[in-house]
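Appendix B. One record, verbatim.
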Amino acid sequence: MKIIIAGAGDVGFHLAKLLSYESQDTYIIDFDGDKLNYINNHLDVITQKGDATSIKLLKELGVDSADLLIAVTESQNTNFTISVIGKSLGAKKTIARIDNPEFLNECEVDFKKFGLDFMISPQELAANEIKMLLNQSSFNDTVAFESGTFNVMGTSLTYKSPLVDLTVKEAKQKFRNIDFITIAIKRDNVAQTIIPRGDVTYQLNDQVYFSVPNYSMKDLYPIIGKKQFNIKNVIILGGSSIGEKTARNLCEDNFRVKLIEKNKEKAENLAESLDNVLVINGDGRNLELLEEENIRETDAFIAVTNNSETNIMSCLVAKSKGVKKTIALVENMDYIDISQTIGIESLINKKLIAASNIFRHIRKGEILALANLHNIDAEVFEFEVRPNAKVTKKPIRDLNVPREAVFGGIIRNGEPLMSFGGMQIQDGDKVIVFCLPEAIETVESLFR
């Protein structure tokens, strides 16, 4: 598969990183020579310095034979232009990163006529992610498959969790009446993600990811030593497009929302457009202001300003005042790994979310969905099982699934089933698989 990426920023780099594990024929274009040099030193892709809107350059890279042209520069207009030109020159499929979510929602303009096959808005995706995190309040990462039939949920283990110091096998025996599969563990000071086998021991402060059928979700809380709590009162810091979209999303679900915006003109505009939101013009870093707005009675604090450090620090302040759930938007990918160690439940990066969303367009046809877990450089796939696929020939325990992968569950005729060793997968099943990058190709071959 030949893929051309326009833009070597965080979205482009993360996409190229994912593709480098796949031996795809990948090209990446950017004006910034330093970014391209960094990519050359770290990834096995072909870089080209120049203007991705140049017809001459696109032809030189063979855009007419490209299976996919992905435009993810910082400029929405540039991404539109690249997509239109690339499609006209023969690219089979185009994807453009946009900033205006209006284009995604029942837009009267048919952008496909102009050459844009798909559009993604990092802001829209981040706002949706925030809403999902609030709905599963005691977990810091959550992904729903098939409308929540199966869920992948992540949390950090505290001393209150009865899992601590048990092996995976012992935990399954102790909690045999609860259906869950531990699919991954991220441990402090251990770079490699742990794919747990029976002899792996849960440790204090482990970030653990579970795959859970819908009927077991409420039973998972005692296992992790946390209580499910309802979130109703929310403060959003920052009137960015993400802040505005998050406020709209939460009001639709009857959350009580306050939004703090420092810029007076922007605050006034937001107050006019957000009917059910209390918009406050002020500096959210001001402790006195937060106290005036009853920060101690707030269930969740969401910081989505354009400054990562402000978001992190304000969430730490909110946490110190007793706020149960904090979510900070960060631009620096390096911050993603430190969220639990500094006391913030969730750090999200809109570019990482966008890259994972784009990546599913690159996958083979049998993949229905793909998600990226925070803190872990790996993917969760949902495969649809085709007739005569290799996975249907033997029980799971005899399939030679690589150690870098684990089956997280099966959905059969809309019903969740546990993917234990003796289970036989059937045609038409949908299978949740957690997979480190080096095992993706092997896992995919099982579904062919």
